[in-house]
Design brief:
The complex is a heterodimer of chains A (about 240) and B (about 230). Chain A contains nine helices and two strands. Chain A has about 240 residues and is mainly alpha-helical. Chain A has one domain: Ferritin, core subunit, four-helix bundle (Ferritin). A two-stranded antiparallel ribbon of chain A has the order 1-2. In chain A, helix 5 runs antiparallel to helix 7 and helix 7 runs antiparallel to helix 8. Chain A is globular, with a radius of gyration of 18 Å. The termini of chain A are far apart. With about 230 residues, chain B is mainly α. Chain B has one domain: Ferritin, CATH 1.20.1260. Chain B contains six helices and two strands. Chain B has a two-stranded antiparallel ribbon. In chain B, helix 2 runs antiparallel to helix 4 and helix 3 runs antiparallel to helix 5. Chain B starts with about 35 loop residues before the first helix and ends in a 14-residue tail after the last strand. The chains are: A mainly alpha (about 240), B mainly alpha (about 230).
């Protein structure tokens, strides 16, 4: 791979051989510094909840700040409509998205641990594994004691060989996009604000893995939302065991 | 991230270094993927929204989105017309261009007589060089993602919201695709941040890509520098 000069001539040449995961980690710093705290509630009740299992430091770390604060604000303050029916709907939506993130986190972690991937796929898996872990941490933090526990998974050969991995990853990322899009109207606008910071990253993952294997990265003009039942079916086909 | 800031784009042709296509995929068949079903979906959402009649706030947001879609569609259409792109980048421009044009049609249909007109654009030569094209495409797509994300929570109508979000994630796919073709990290952070309308429009204005009224566009010859 040729080393492209920085094309606008205003900075140092990029290092194409640097793994994406490292660049990703570095890129998080300015994000967090970009005033993501504006959505924080003054009382910040969710962070002070002692029943929550995740260390505060982990929650505060990195880019989670922006999305996490908005999502936490939405859930802690209760939806604007503030009816118990709406809260129940929002809780169900968040549990579904949590399940999606559990699946992604477990899948990528297992694929990385098994070490069967090489080249672009290996880079992709490492970078995406760390981002999915951040998504999962955020949702678990928001749901706190209400968060469903991590279910069991059997991904079979999908985390053991390259072709199986690529196919399952593309399916999983497309499903994640459809799941987030499908739940958008079931949550409060402030929760949506945070969820929207995740769904486009899932879409980036989908286009990335599809680019690597030569499938169309964006085959449609719109990403069709999928219902909770459709998402559950899809997750089970990929490896969710309930 | 500053790499792709539109404000920093060098539009004077200093981007001529030819680093074309990083990575090794070359599988045919991008165009085989159909767009039909998704357009029907957006059509349904648009129809529902029109029946309810979007409020003034939603109308303003939809016209803002239409403006960004005009910008993107015109960019890809011009790149296609000038035939300066090759291989994977050329195919990507064709696919993404047809999708952005579909987004324009969908918003125009939704807005009816309230739709803003297409401005005239001058892309200052960035459509004439593969590297400059890709860099601009990345900037446009990242900007579109941030713009949709900034507006989605402000939409009142649920059906307009659903339609906007179904486009939002497609723009993110485009962003990752163009980044991949450029040789940049397609997903550089775990969370994508929104941008305000004011910030987005400020950036768009700073490019001088928008040159004036619709009537001047047809007469303007494309600017060839090569």
């Amino acid at each position: 791979m040729a080393s492209p000069k920085d094309a606008d001539g205003s900075g140092p040449a990029r290092q194409p051989e640097e793994p994406y995961a490292q660049r990703s980690a570095r890129a998080r710093v300015p994000l967090a510094a970009r005033g993501g705290n504006r959505f924080l509630l003054p009382a910040d009740p969710i962070r002070n909840d002692p029943s929550r299992g995740i260390p505060r430091a982990q929650f505060v770390a990195g880019a989670i700040v922006a999305g996490g604060a908005a999502l936490a604000a939405g859930v802690a303050a209760g939806p604007l409509e503030d009816s118990s029916a709406q809260s129940e709907r929002e809780l169900r939506a968040l549990q579904l998205l949590l399940l999606v993130e559990y699946t992604e986190d477990t899948f990528y972690q297992e694929a990385v641990d098994r070490g069967a991937l090489r080249g672009e796929l290996k880079e992709y898996a490492a970078a995406v594994a760390s981002q999915e872990r951040e998504h999962l941490d955020l949702l678990r933090q928001v749901l706190g004691a209400k968060a469903d526990p991590r279910p069991g998974f059997e991904f079979g050969s999908a985390t053991r060989d390259a072709d199986g991995f690529a196919a399952a990853a593309a399916e999983l990322e497309d499903l994640a996009v459809a799941a987030y899009n499908g739940q958008a109207t079931n949550v409060s606008r402030s929760t949506l604000e945070a969820a929207a910071t995740i769904v486009s990253v899932e879409a980036r993952h989908a286009a990335w893995i599809r680019s690597i294997v030569g499938d169309p990265p964006a085959p449609d003009a719109t990403d069709k939302p999928r219902s909770a039942d459709e998402v559950l079916d899809g997750l089970e086909q990929i490896g969710l065991r309930r | 991230m500053a790499d792709f800031s539109l404000e920093r784009l060098d539009v004077d042709g200093a981007l001529a270094e030819a680093v074309d296509g990083v990575g090794g995929l070359s599988r045919a068949g991008f165009m085989a993927a159909g767009l039909g079903g998704s357009l029907a979906l957006l059509g349904v959402a648009a129809g529902e929204a029109r029946a309810q009649g979007p409020g003034p706030g939603d109308l303003a947001i939809l016209n803002y989105a239409l403006t960004l879609e005009y910008l993107q569609a015109s960019f890809y259409t011009e790149a296609e017309r000038l035939r300066a792109l090759k291989g994977r980048t050329e195919r990507a421009a064709e696919v993404v261009g047809s999708v952005e044009r579909a987004h324009v049609r969908a918003f125009r249909e939704l807005l009816g007589s309230k739709a803003v007109k297409r401005p005239a654009f001058d892309f200052q030569g960035v459509t004439e060089n593969p590297r400059a094209f890709l860099k601009t495409a990345v900037a446009f797509e990242d900007l579109a993602v941030a713009a949709y994300k900034g507006q989605a929570p402000r939409l009142e109508s649920s059906s307009v919201l659903a339609a906007a979000l179904s486009i939002h994630s497609v723009e993110a796919r485009h962003a990752a695709w163009m980044r991949y073709l450029f040789g940049a990290n397609p997903a550089q952070a775990a969370f994508d941040q929104p941008s305000s309308k004011r910030e987005v429009l400020r950036i768009v204005r700073s490019t001088n890509f928008v040159t004036g009224s619709p009537s001047t566009e047809r007469n303007r010859a494309p600017r060839y520098t090569g």
